[in-house]
C-alpha cells in the first residue's frame, strides 16, 4: 500500500512540474495566440509553459515565459510588400504554401548562423515536451530533434491535409472542403464531381509541396545540425506524439481520426471587460441602426492595399450613414471619411462583437475571427485574402450566418449589396444564434479535456504506449491504401483473358 501511495505521489510531482516549450514561426503572434488559451489552461494545472520564436521587433505579452531569439537588424521576409500584393490581388493555392516554408527556412538558417548559442541554450533547457507550430518553424522542430524529446504538433487551424496524411489519419480529403478553396468556389459542394477533383488536387498538391518543396527547404536550413540523411518533415509529423488543433469540431466536416488527435478549439470565452466610455458613446448613438465592424486581423495592413480597393471600401463605408462603422486599421485616419466611421489601430474586437447593437462583422475569415463571429453570434461578411481563409469563410457560410466576398469582383456596388443583404435579412442573425446554441455542447469543456490529455501524456513521459497509435504510421501508402491487394484484380483478369 505504501508503495502505491509513493508511486502516486511521484507521479503527481511530475505532473506538477512538467515544462513545455511552444515553438512557433517568426514573430508568430497569429499562430501563438490560437494556442495561448490552451497554454494558460495548462498553467492552471501547475505546468510551466514558455514560447519560443524569432522576433524582429517587440511583441505582445503572451502570458507565458519568453524564450525569444532576437533577430532585430535582419529583414523579416514574412512582412514584404509582395505579400500584400498576393493578399489583395492574387489567388492563393497549395503552391503558395511553399513560400512561407521557404521564408521560415531562410530565417532558421540565419538563426543557426548568427544566434546558435541562444538557440542551443533554449533547446537544452530541461523541457519535458515540445509543442510545434505545424507551419513554418523548422528551428523549433530541430530543438525536439537534437534533444530527442517528444513533440506534439499544434495546428492553429485544422490539421492540414498533408500533415494528416503523414500521420496516417486516413481521412478522405476529397470529401472535405479543400484547405485552399479557390476564391471562385464559394458554392463548393462534395456532391459535384468537379469539386471533388479540386479537393483531391489540393490534397495531393499540398502533400507534395509540404513533404517535397517545404521538406527540402527545411533539410537545407537544418543541414549544419542535422546532417545526412537530414531532417525529414514527413517523419517529424509521423513521430509526433499527438496532434492538437484549434479547429472546432462543430464547424468542420466530420472526418476520420485517431487516438492521437484532439480539437481544443470548441470553446467561447466571454469578454473580460465591457466597452470603455469612448467606444460605448460611439456605438450607442441613438441615430445608429447598428454597428458594423471592419477588421482584417493583425497581418493585413490597409496602408499597403491597392488604391482602388481602398477607395471602394472608403466610399461604401461612407454611404452607410444610418450605421456606426468601426474600421480597424493602422496609420492615420484617411482623408474624406465621414463622421459615422471611426478609425482605430486598436479595436476592442471581442467587446464590440458581443455588443447588442452590432449587426455585421466584415473580415478576412481567419479562424480566430470566424470563431469570434460564432461566439458572439454576429452575422458576417468574409473577404478571404490568403492562406486557408476561403475555406474558413466557406465553413461559416455553410452554417448560414455569413456570406463570402470575392476579392476579384470587388466594386462599390458589389460590396454595398453584400453588406445590405446581410444586415437587412434576419436569417443571418437567427442562423448565427442557432449555431451558437449547440456550438460548445460537449461532455466536458474542450480546454479541460485537452489539459487532461496532456496530463496523461506527461504520465507516460511524453509518449503514449505503442498500442495507442495507428499501425498505418509505420506502413507505406501502397500497403495502407490496399494498392498491393487491389493489384491482384488486373493480374487475375489478365490471366483469365490470356487462357
Ligand atoms: C534586440 O537586439 C537589439 C540590438 O541588436 C536591441 O536594440 C534590442 O533592445 C533587443 N531587443 C530585445 C527585446 O531584447
Ligand atoms: C451559388 O448558389 C446560389 C444559390 O444556389 C446561386 O444563386 C449563385 O448564383 C451561385 N453562385 C455561383 C458563383 O455559382
Automatic annotation (TrEMBL):
Annotated SUPFAM superfamilies: UDP-Glycosyltransferase/glycogen phosphorylase
Major site of localization recorded for this protein: membrane
InterPro entries: UDP-glycosyltransferase (IPR050271), UDP_glucos_trans (IPR002213)
Molecular function via GO: glucuronosyltransferase activity
Location within or outside the cell: Membrane
UniProt key word Signal: yes
UniProtKB keywords: Glycoprotein, Glycosyltransferase, Membrane, Signal, Transferase, Transmembrane, Transmembrane helix
Membrane topology recorded in Swiss-Prot or TrEMBL: Single-pass membrane protein
Transmembrane intervals: 475-497
Catalytic activity, reaction form: glucuronate acceptor + UDP-alpha-D-glucuronate = acceptor beta-D-glucuronoside + UDP + H(+)
Cellular compartments per GO CC: membrane
Annotated signal sequence range: 1-17
Broad class of enzyme this protein falls into: transferase
CDD domains (alphabetical): GT1_Gtf-like
This enzyme's EC code(s): 2.4.1.17
Protein family according to the UniProt entry: Belongs to the UDP-glycosyltransferase family.
Name the UniProt record assigns to this protein: glucuronosyltransferase
Gene of this entry: Cbn-ugt-64
Amino acid at each position: 500500500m505504501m508503495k502505491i501511495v509513493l508511486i502516486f505521489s511521484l507521479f503527481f510531482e511530475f505532473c506538477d512540474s512538467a515544462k513545455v516549450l511552444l515553438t512557433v514561426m517568426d514573430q508568430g503572434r497569429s499562430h501563438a495566440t490560437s494556442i495561448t488559451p490552451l497554454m494558460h489552461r495548462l498553467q492552471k494545472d501547475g505546468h510551466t509553459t514558455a514560447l519560443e520564436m524569432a522576433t524582429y521587433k517587440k511583441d505582445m505579452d503572451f502570458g507565458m515565459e519568453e524564450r525569444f531569439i532576437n533577430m532585430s537588424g535582419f529583414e523579416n521576409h514574412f512582412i514584404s510588400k509582395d505579400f500584400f500584393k498576393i493578399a489583395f490581388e492574387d489567388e492563393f493555392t497549395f503552391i503558395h504554401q511553399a513560400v512561407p516554408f521557404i521564408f521560415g527556412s531562410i530565417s532558421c538558417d540565419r538563426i543557426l548562423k548568427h544566434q546558435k548559442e541562444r538557440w542551443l541554450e533554449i533547446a537544452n533547457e530541461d523541457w519535458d515536451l515540445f509543442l510545434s507550430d505545424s507551419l513554418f518553424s523548422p528551428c523549433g522542430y530541430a530543438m525536439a530533434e537534437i534533444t530527442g524529446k517528444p513533440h506534439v504538433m499544434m495546428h492553429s487551424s485544422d490539421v492540414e491535409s498533408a500533415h494528416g496524411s503523414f500521420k496516417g489519419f486516413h481521412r478522405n480529403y476529397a470529401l472535405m472542403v479543400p484547405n485552399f478553396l479557390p476564391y471562385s468556389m464559394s458554392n463548393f459542394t462534395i456532391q459535384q464531381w468537379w469539386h471533388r477533383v479540386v479537393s483531391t488536387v489540393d490534397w495531393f498538391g499540398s502533400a507534395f509541396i509540404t513533404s517535397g518543396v517545404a521538406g527540402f527547404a527545411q533539410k537545407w536550413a537544418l543541414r549544419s545540425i542535422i546532417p545526412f540523411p537530414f531532417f525529414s518533415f514527413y517523419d517529424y509529423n509521423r513521430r509526433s506524439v499527438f496532434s492538437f488543433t484549434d479547429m472546432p469540431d462543430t464547424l468542420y466536416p466530420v472526418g476520420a481520426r485517431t487516438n492521437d488527435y484532439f480539437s481544443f478549439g470548441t470553446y467561447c470565452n466571454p469578454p473580460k471587460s465591457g466597452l470603455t466610455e469612448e467606444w460605448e458613446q460611439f456605438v450607442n448613438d441613438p441615430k445608429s441602426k447598428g454597428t458594423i465592424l471592419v477588421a482584417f486581423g493583425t497581418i493585413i495592413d490597409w496602408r499597403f492595399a491597392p488604391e482602388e480597393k481602398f477607395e471602394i471600401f472608403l466610399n461604401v463605408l461612407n454611404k452607410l450613414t444610418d450605421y456606426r462603422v468601426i474600421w480597424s486599421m493602422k496609420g492615420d485616419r484617411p482623408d474624406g471619411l465621414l463622421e459615422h466611421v471611426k478609425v482605430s489601430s486598436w479595436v476592442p474586437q471581442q467587446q464590440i462583437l458581443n455588443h447588442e447593437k452590432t449587426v455585421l462583422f466584415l473580415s478576412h475569415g481567419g479562424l480566430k475571427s470566424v470563431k469570434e463571429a460564432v461566439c458572439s453570434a454576429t452575422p458576417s461578411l468574409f473577404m478571404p485574402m490568403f492562406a486557408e481563409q476561403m475555406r474558413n469563410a466557406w465553413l461559416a457560410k455553410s452554417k448560414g450566418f455569413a456570406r463570402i466576398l470575392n476579392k476579384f469582383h470587388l466594386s462599390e456596388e458589389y460590396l454595398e449589396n453584400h453588406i445590405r443583404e446581410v444586415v437587412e435579412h434576419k436569417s443571418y442573425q437567427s442562423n448565427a444564434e442557432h449555431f451558437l446554441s449547440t456550438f460548445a455542447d460537449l461532455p466536458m469543456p474542450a480546454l479541460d479535456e485537452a489539459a487532461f490529455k496532456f496530463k496523461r501524456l506527461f504520465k507516460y513521459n511524453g509518449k503514449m504506449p505503442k498500442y495507442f497509435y495507428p499501425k498505418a504510421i509505420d506502413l507505406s501508402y501502397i500497403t495502407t491504401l490496399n494498392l498491393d491487394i487491389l493489384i491482384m484484380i488486373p493480374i487475375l483478369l489478365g490471366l483469365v483473358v490470356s487462357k
